[in-house]
Amino acid sequence: MADAKVIPFGEEPRARRKARRAGHGGRGTALAPVPEARTDPEPPPAPRPTGGRTLDERIAGGLAFLRRRITGDYEVDDFGYDEELTDQVLMSLLRPLYDKYFRVEVKGMENIPAEGGALIVANHSGTLPLDGLMLQVAVHDNHPAQRHLRLLAADLVFVLPVMNELARKAGHTLACAEDAQRLLERGEIVGVMPEGFKGIGKPFADRYKLQRFGRGGFVSTALKAGVPIVPCSIVGAEEIYPMIGNAKTLARVLGLPYFPITPTFPWLGPLGAVPLPTKWTIQFGEPIATDGYPAEAADDPMLMFNLTDQVRETIQHTLYKLLVQRRSVFF
Amino acid sequence: MGNVVLVTGAARQLGGRFVRRIQRDPDVDRVIGVDAVAPEHHLGGAEFLKADIRHPAIARVLAETGVDTVVHMDINGTPLGSRGGRASVKETNVIGTMQLLGACQKAPHVQRVVIKSSTSVYGSAPRDPAVFTENTPPKSLPSGGFAKDTVEVEGYVRGFARRRPDVAVCVLRFANILGPCADSPLAEYFSLPVLPTVLGYDPRLQFVHEDDAIDVLRIAAAAPRRGTLNSGTFNIAGDGVLLLSQVSRRLGRPTLPLFLPTVTWAGTAVRSLGITDFSPEQIRMLTHGRVVETTQMRETLGFHPSYTTAETFEEFARSRGPGLLPPASLARTVDRLAGVLSARRGASQ
């Protein structure tokens, strides 16, 4: 596995890369599933001309939605999760990014249970937490039961205006044991990225090297709730904003955990905030059952460390495997 | 048991309603309302004693009347009427509670003390868990205002409970109490024609209906029913959550989102002019919101509120009259639009 190196882009000329890809064509297809193989859960709605009916229905649906929204006649849960808004608006806004831009390929969806709680533990990368959002769309659009992922987010998200509002409405909540346990006990699928800022704000040179998994609090939470842990590896997010530097002083002044410097970011202004169109793969691994442990196991630090390591190793190995299969960063 | 009940804060709407309600309870022989000023409403035949709980005279009242249940409701965020500012409110809340509890400690026949506290003891901060339970330690203690008062009051109550373990002490932490005649700062805020909000935040709010507040106070002031326990600390809130945006739409009042520094500044300006009591902790609550867990209330206290948060608010909105953008007429507009559109499409085919 040690030779599983990332292919740095921009190193070899395009022509050579193309030639190499052509030569490796057979091997590549043998290893990696065809990208187009992802089945759409829902066929795209029928185009308008054939039946004015569908359009009428859509207009009626849209107006009913508008009516509910402007009269405030909708429900949110204790965490401020607005399911209707998430399904109809927020997800639709993210879907072009998911389908067309990052062309996310999802594997191992069968590892997410059809019902009941589960804790999805994923690697974190990409300078901006787009990986979390893509993971949320991936789970919702590919799971047969269209389950909603409830992400645990850093406290910074809830300090910042607008982010706070959007995150709460999209079903995210603060990454703390209380909230996570409450969600898991309600039978929700909870997503957590235990690397936190260490993972998302790591330099480009350290890409796909998993950082320390916090203190492993997520394992004891899963154990207490008795839900399986589903390891998840996300490939492609590391390269969206290659962070080549970190303006630490500026970050401290702004109260941010890091201030990224990418080949484009501060230099091109807002244009630098456009992520690179990398090709993503999200792989869910085999769930690790936690219901076989006695009640006091959650207080056993050794067991916690072992389980944390097991989850971490699984994700790291899957990352390496996916990297070997990957033909290029962008395709 | 529960024969002689002393109710502080009887001159307020909620206190008055509570006095009138328990006056009708068959178990209660005598109800004594206490406040620093005479109430404007009638107390349904209950006795009223004009006494200031900030003064040691309250001890004499307790001793002479042989009170066995004390319901302390004189913990408020706003002054009663127009008199007195924040200083006198704080004094009534904190010094008043100290005096009252001191008097209770000296009165051997007191068996039950009920404190009307508030969920503002939890504060509101972005780093807090989304839902507070009774034993969640707040990440940032309230720095001032009513919230700090409640924290201090609860501290004294805990001290009292330690010194008099024979007394059943019940602390009820109420979420925002709303009702047709509620006179809380939040009710005042919802009466503004345009609601100033904090840009980029949509706080989660919980409400308790006045009727439910009265009912739960009665449960706490009486002997515990079978299988329940009514001493300890309980969060009291209606089921469910409303966002401020939902609230404004249901009220039909447009919002005016402002940057947080602007809101804080405007709040200070308005406060110094004495127009409304828009305190910093109120602003924090309207920024980050607050939701509490009510499992203890249901399972231990055995109280099931009859109004959810949404129903409480609906009732409140009805009592306030329509705002600038009444939801009913907005809905009508959309329906009319739908009608026009479908007619157009029908005609074009």
UniProtKB/TrEMBL annotation, chain A:
Transmembrane segments: none annotated. One of its GO terms (molecular function) is acyltransferase activity. Residues 15-24 have a biased composition (Basic residues). Residues 1-54 are annotated as: Disordered. InterPro entries: P_lipid/glycerol_AcTrfase_prd (IPR016676), Plipid/glycerol_acylTrfase (IPR002123). One of its GO terms (cellular component) is membrane. SMART domains: PlsC (SM00563). Signal peptide: none annotated. This is Glycerol acyltransferase. It comes from Streptomyces noursei (Streptomyces albulus).
Automatic annotation (TrEMBL), chain B:
It comes from the Bacteria. Coiled coil: none annotated. InterPro entries: Epimerase_deHydtase, Lipid_A_modif_metabolic_enz, NAD(P)-bd_dom_sf. Pfam families: Epimerase. This is Uncharacterized protein.
